[in-house]
Each structure stands twice: as C-alpha cells, then as structure tokens.
Design goal:
alpha+beta, three-stranded antiparallel beta sheet, 3 helices, Arc Repressor Mutant, subunit A, globular
Length: 85
C-alpha cells in the first residue's frame, strides 16, 4: 500500500528519509553529505519519483521509501499524479 508522504508526521518522514539516505547512499549522520541527501530525497518524494510503501504483512519492515519506477501499474495507479498535491 502506498502512503502519501504528506500524511506522515515530520518526525516519521525524517526518519524514513534518513534511513533511505544511509541505506542507499552510504551517508552517515556525521557526514555533511547527509544534509544534501535529505534535500534530494525530499525533492524526489514531492515529485513522485520516490514513494512510501507500507508492507503490513512483513513484520521486519513496516514502511520504506522505494523508487516509483520499481512499482507495477496497479501500485502506480494508487500513487496518483504528484502534481495534483
């Protein structure tokens, strides 16, 4: 299930963005690139290039950021047009 980023609290969204930056780009909290990565990821969320995927049946991973181009057509329809937001 796709969760619109606007529906998350600021803290929850920040945690997902940080986790994605660290996991996908190897940035650490001690490095300056983390600040730049956060901005890039938030921009990608606003444009719809990244989406929040909630996986209720997976006990190890509840929600994560995923590239929209990895989703199938049915999942993409649920995302909608980010320019409408």
């Amino acid at each position: 299930m796709i969760i619109p980023w606007q529906e998350l609290s600021a803290d929850a969204l920040a945690a997902l963005v940080d986790e994605y930056c660290i996991r996908e780009n190897g940035c650490s909290d001690l490095e300056e690139p983390l600040l730049e990565c956060r901005e890039q990821i938030q921009h990608q969320l606003r444009r719809g290039n990244l989406v929040i995927l909630y996986t209720p049946n997976n006990p190890n991973q509840v929600a994560s950021l995923v590239p929209a181009d990895r989703l199938d057509e049915r999942e993409l329809e649920a995302v909608g047009d980010p320019s409408d937001q």
